[in-house]
Amino acid sequence: MEFDLWWLLVLPLMFALGWLASRVDLRQVGKERALRRDAPQAYYRGLNHLLNEQQDKAIDAFIEAMTADPDTVDLHFALGNLFRRRGEYERAVRVHQNLLSRADLPREARERAQLALAQDFFKAGLLDRAETAYEDLRRSAYASQALTSLLQISERTQDWHKAIARAAELELRATGTYQRQIAQYWCELAAQHQAAGREAEAQQALDAALQASPQGVRPRMLRAQWAQQRGDLALALQSLESIDLVQPEFLALAAVQIAQLRQQLGQVQEGLAWLRQRLEQTPAIDLLDAVLLLDPDPASRARCAQGYLQSHRSLLALKRVLEHPAPGAVVPEVATAMQGAVDNALRSRQRYRCAACGFEARQYFWHCPGCQGWETYPPRRLEELSLLGS
Ligand SMILES: [Zn+2]
Questions:
Q1: Checking CA distances to 378, which of 2, 114, 172, 282 falls within 20 to 30 Å?
Q2: Ligand 1 centroid to 59 CA: how many Å?
Q3: Per residue in 31-50, pLDDT tens?
Q4: In which region does residue 174 sit, left (phi positive, over 0), alpha (psi from -120 to 50) or beta (all else)?
Q5: Was 304 annotated as part of a binding site?
Q6: Domains contained in the chain, number
Q7: Same domain, yes or no, for 319 and 334?
Q8: One GO molecular-function annotation for this sequence (predicted)?
Q9: 153 CA to middle of ligand 1, Å?
Q10: Between residues 386 and 239, which one has the greater pLDDT?
Q11: In whole angstroms, what is the distance from residue 130 CA to residue 138 CA?
Q12: How far is ligand 1, taken at its centre, from the CA of residue 17, in Å?
């Protein structure tokens, strides 16, 4: 009986001691955790501000979180990216450099920080520093990404030799096909050589362009341009007409020039027959213009323009009909007024539009000034395109 009583006393005592011990323990740990708990809270607050597009408050919260827990690598990245997005490149660079200066940084995080730093430099327009930073990533997990950015840098700095080498390396890495782009780089290089009077090098670059992309239109147009400058009109004509064999829809870009060459060579009838046939096969307003330029007979010109309008009901075609009226059909003053009306309606419809970004331009571009894409412009003006789409 005595034993039982003793036991009844000891049990609550042990329980109380245990409880006390656990309280003391928890308080100790709690103190250590308090600081760390602030970090995630500030982190979530920052995220919340970000989602509400309150970037200033988000940055304050992230800085607070970083002060509470300087080891958090992800916070550095979040903050650095925020700075970069706001255009505060100096601060972004400082955050990422701070991260890179840490000796204990694991390899994966170091490479990621290096990439972020390269992106900061790139966005800030410090292309030489960006190039160095990206070059350092060539053997990292971000090699392909770095190489793509290096390619962009060589395009911006118009270093076409480097662009060609980097595009070829990207192709070796099986990140896609770059042959058409490489052909465009060779064309840029050829134009550079030609402008500097290095004709042999220009010719070699042009050959390389055609080797990279045998269906290329631009090398054929460049070759024609240079041949014409040298007075070799026959070669110029042959080069332009060869576009018909590779990408007939691009004849539109060369049609008027072809008509002028035929005229200069005294081959009007031969040229007319060729152009009329192409106009039938791949109708385009530029081919109509070429025929109208070459045809000496006003009645025949009027018929041709009217025939085109019947099958292509565009303002461009209507304009040609008004410009080439059948003899005696319209009073000249009325014809002028009608042309004016059509010109007004056409004003914004005569441009070329990038298929990738929608950038519009009066002149045809091989390299879009808007999105930096290559060969993104269809060889048809807006007015003609809307006709094809309908
Ligand atoms: Zn574009």
A1: 172
A2: 34
A3: 445 555 566 777 788 778 87
A4: left
A5: no
A6: 3
A7: yes
A8: iron ion binding
A9: 18
A10: 239
A11: 13
A12: 75
